[in-house]
Design goal:
Elements lengths: L8 E6 L6 H14 L3 E6 L13 H12 L5 E3 L2 H5 L8 H12 L5 E6 H5 L10 H4 L1 E6 L13 H9 L3 H4 L7 E5 L7 H9 L10 H10 L9
Parallel strand pairs: 1-2, 1-4, 2-3, 4-5, 5-6
Helix pairs in contact: 2-10
Bound molecules: adenosine-5'-triphosphate.
Length: 226
């Protein structure tokens, strides 16, 4: 049970269409670098700000579950997938509100996102409310550095006011923005879908249980997987 794990709880949302090894490295390195008790993967239901996923939510969830099954320190939350009715978009703010209710007002929650995603943060629904619900930890890597803080946007101002370090995460339940560097792995789900559509092998780009699932269901075989 996640509440028993000491240390802040990492929340890692993504489309995971499909989950690949750079996602797993981000979660693992976040756990180490930020002193997280656990990282909970949260597959998106209907992501609001991007193209519709190629795979149904149930398959994306199944791949994440298979990838993290039995891994200490990793868990999966199906709530966003289950809450997605029809094509109603899922929003991170709703997910964080749900997590906050579940874990109570005091447990430090840390939303994990890549620097690319953070650059578009101001377009997220009620983005300024997110700081009251969780810390934000931004994964950077060579070629995907943080380009926030020096400008005059609202996000620049929030970043300057909230920038912290890993040590800050355990002392408050929410409110800091903490950049952390991870191993650069130039892997994207888009490129994996393209390879599969071209009948090319994606072994070692995705964990073996995900490879097996994709193979058994013949996922991403058609060239609509942009
Ligand atoms: P797509 O190509 O379909 O956009 P993606 O893997 O980039 O897929 P998501 O599955 O939504 O997109 O990614 C979830 C999170 O993982 C995001 O915060 C994203 O920034 C991060 N991420 C994705 N790929 C990498 C990578 N190679 N290295 C570090 N972080 C990554």
């Amino acid at each position: 049970m996640s509440d028993a794990a000491p240390g802040p709880l990492g929340l890692f949302g993504g489309t995971f269409d499909p989950l690949h090894v750079a996602h797993l490295r981000l979660a693992l390195e976040a756990r180490e670098a930020l002193g997280l008790g656990e990282v909970c993967f949260i597959p998106a239901g209907n992501p609001a700000l991007r193209d519709a996923p190629v795979c149904p939510a149930a398959d994306r969830l199944a791949m994440v579950e298979r990838a993290v099954a039995g891994r200490a320190g990793f868990s999966v939350d199906a709530a966003e997938v289950l809450a997605a009715r029809d094509s109603a978009p899922s929003y991170t703010v709703d997910t964080l509100e749900r997590q906050r209710l579940r874990h109570g007002p005091l447990r430090p929650l840390v939303l994990l996102i890549g620097a690319d995603a953070f650059a578009r943060f101001e377009s997220w629904r009620r983005w300024q409310d997110l700081f009251a619900l969780a810390h934000i930890a931004v994964a950077t890597r060579p070629g995907h550095e943080l380009r926030v803080g020096a400008g005059s946007s609202a996000l620049d101002a929030e970043f300057r006011a909230r920038q912290g370090t890993a040590a800050d995460l355990a002392v408050a339940p929410a409110g800091c923005i903490v950049p952390f560097a991870i191993t650069a792995l130039e892997i994207s789900a888009t490129a994996i879908r393209r390879r599969l559509a071209a009948d090319l092998d994606v072994r070692y780009l995705v964990p073996d249980p995900v490879l097996d699932y994709i193979g058994s269901r013949q996922l991403y075989r058609t060239p609509h997987g942009h």
